[in-house]
Every structure is written in C-alpha cells, then in structure tokens.
Amino acid sequence: DGIVQESPFMRVDKPKAKNKKRAYWTLKMTRKALAAMKHDDSFLHTAVHLTFICTGRNGEVVGLTWDCVDFERGCIKIEKTLQRIGEDEFPILPKNELFFVFPKKVSSSKSLLVLKSTKTDESVREIYLTKELTRELETRWQIVQREKEYLGSEYNNYNLVFCLENGDPIEPKLMVKKFQKWQNRHPE
To answer: Cβ(62)–Cβ(160) under 8 Å?
Structure first.
C-alpha cells in the first residue's frame, strides 16, 4: 500500500567514470604551429611560446608583469595570475593574495578583473628563457614603450607584458579566443 519493498537503486550498477583524454601537441606540432604563428601574429606567437616554455596557465601568461622579467639573468618569475571574479567573491579573497584590482569598463558589471597571486604557492616558479624567447620579450618591451610614448597620458600603465595597445589588460578568455581563431584558420 504505497510502501516500497526494496530500493530500486540496489539493482543498478553505478555509472563508470569516463576519463576524457585530452588532445595535446607533440614537439613537432608545436614547432610547426609556432613557425606558422610567427608569420601570422607575433603577439600571439610570443604568448603561446611563453606558455609552452613556462608551462603556464592562460591567466599566468596574461598576468605577467615587467617586474617579473629579468633580461639580465634570462628568466621570468611566475607569481601572478589575471582572473575575473564575481563581486560577491571579492570580500572573501585574502587581501595578501591581491596585487591589483583593475577599474571596471562597464559600471553595471557584476565582476572584477584582478591581478592576484597564483593558484597555489607551488605554482610560483622561476623559469629560464630560451634566447629566442628572450629576444621576443625584448621586442615586446620595445613595442610597449612605443605605445606608451605614442599615447602619453592616455596609456594605462599596469606594467603588463601582454596588454592592449592602450595598456589595458587582456582577459584570459579573450586570449583563448584569439588562439582558437588562429587554430581554426590553421587546421593542419
């Protein structure tokens, strides 16, 4: 009379976990992509090259600041990440993890773009650069200096290595979109 005599869950096998295999690039594919990228988009090439050399996360690459680049020693220090967080998360973010909060571009936005410490203490690392990547970063430095000079007081100097022409940060998801567009144009 409406009473279940046995659980229907006892007769069902629990679902098996499916581990999706991630696609990855071989060394040959990486070299081929970087060679093609160098001719198409030097900005993206430098960002992707840096990502491979430092096994960096997207937010770590777009959050790299010039004070973490040591040209004399040929190394960079990964200690920051650029991340979008909800306004409701901001009060609980430990202030010792926060380097900078970028001004909102849209006042009604419910989130903030922040430069914060890396995900874990173990993520902080020093990476030695190849000569080629060092040259690319030196070229990037020169480009940023020209943009600063050209825009003068209109330039937003956040000290970012990868930024828009006016110095504003590039959101991690926008860098991913830029890479995906390039990849779609180069299916090989």
So the answer is: yes
- Is the pTM value of this prediction over 0.85? no
In three-state secondary structure terms, 92 is: helix
Q: What digits encode the pLDDT tens for the residues 121-143?
A: 888 999 999 999 999 999 999 99
- What's the token pair of residue 71? 């040209």
Residue appearing with tokens 């679902």 = 15
Q: Distance (Å, rounded) from C-alpha 134 to C-alpha 69?
A: 9
Alpha carbons 62 and 163: distance in angstroms, whole number: 8
Spatial separation of the C-alpha atoms in residues 43 and 49, rounded to whole Å: 10
Cα separation, 2 vs 69, whole angstroms: 71
